[in-house]
Amino acid sequence: MIVLKFGGTSVRDAHWMRRVIDIAYDALDRGPLLVSSAMTGATDDLLAMAGAAARGNGEEALQLLENVRRRHLEVCRDITDSDAGPAHDVLEQMLAEVRYLIQGITLVRECTPRTQDAVVSFGERLATVLLTAETERRGIPVQLLDSRQLVRTDDHFTNAACIVEATYDLIRANVHPHPGTLLIAQGFIGATAEGVTSTLGRGGSDFSASLFGSALGAEEVQIWTDVDGILSADPRIVADAVLLDTISYSEAAELAFFGAKVVHPFTIQPAIELGIPVTVRNTGKPEGTGTRIHAAVDVHGVRALAAKKGVTVISVHSSRMLNAYGFLSRIFGVFERFRISVDLIATSEVSVSMTVDTSVNLAPALAELEQFGHVQVESDQAILSLVGKNLWKDPTFVTRVFAALAKTPVRMISLGASDVNLSLVVGQQDVNSAMQTLHKEFFA
Ligand code: ADP
Ligand code: ASP
Ligand code: MG
Fold this sequence. Notes:
Strand order of the largest sheet: 3-4-2-1-7-9-10-8
Structural class: alpha/beta
Largest sheet: 8 strands, mixed
Bound molecules: adenosine-5'-diphosphate, aspartic acid, magnesium ion
Oligomer: single chain
CATH topology of the largest domain: Carbamate kinase
């Protein structure tokens, strides 16, 4: 079987949905399972409407809902050539549920993470109804699955962790791909053991695709998006970024982790474990070969650049650190308790600096860190990463990086923790130009 995942841009309107089903049709004899994101912007709109409702701004929330409704019904009309019919009715029923939720949130002026997940889950649910309608219109046998019955998560709503073994069992027991039928499932959404709807975090549909692929022993997981594959840099920042034919799992994971949004960091993990190839391809150009993510690729040197914005550097200065054992573990214990993940670390004898990319729980964590020493916080930073194998083995590499960045202040450096990455912390305002400069240095 094969898993085809389509991102929000690939299902942005009826025209693109037809392309998606063209691609799925071509894979029909491989027993395809299609995993879809919400239509581009729909998740943001649903979040915005829940937010407006929680502020008691019911009018604004209902207006946003009306926009979402209109957009989905227009696509439905385009697909089915009618303003009625089963798909139309299912959409209206789902949209009525969203309306109830929004009215409830407006009344109590509160949107818990659990309720927020209930609201945003409709993005993927609406999109898959439309894709199913298009598949049926063409007379292709299709089965629409409900990922909430297949992807089991914990109850950390809005960013739930998948309970992988339970999920594999559910998928294996209930999903039976076979040639000639298209299976369609929602990315991003799941449910707790109690059946409460949850989501896997922004961009989580890639992870869903990988879970389905791993559970079912897919021959391949294809991530279809709006660029030709994984490029040497984000094309929105570096216009002449080049396509990488292949990339290793570790390089791709590193790129994703450090901000190359094209694949979700977790996507790679379940697939690596089973050696399932993951390819990234362009829905707008299906004839392209895209990028193949392999177990290992023997290419040395810089392969790609990535940037992660919205980073905060936290430094703890304390003379108590001197020759003290257990100091770092107590500091990291604080981050662990508040479920804040630390990306980069640099230590000296009397201080430790760390980067985090979230503001959730940060204030209470900082208050606890004060007990260890003086805490300094620098926001609006960015991590710029150069990804490639054995970079440190090339004696000219670091010189080239710093010569190119002679005019950019670099706040922190990390090289060699993995053998595939050099990461620099720079001010957020400098990161795009620094990326362009480095791209010129290593790819021109
Ligand atoms: P989707 O809606 O398909 O999930 P995303 O917006 O999540 O798409 O990811 C695709 C986008 O990732 C591209 O449009 C591109 O701007 C961005 N991107 C960032 N870094 C890279 C990179 N190294 N290669 C390709 N695309 C990248
Ligand atoms: N629709 C979700 C989001 O916008 C998940 C995804 O697209 O992968 O984050
Ligand atoms: Mg994505």
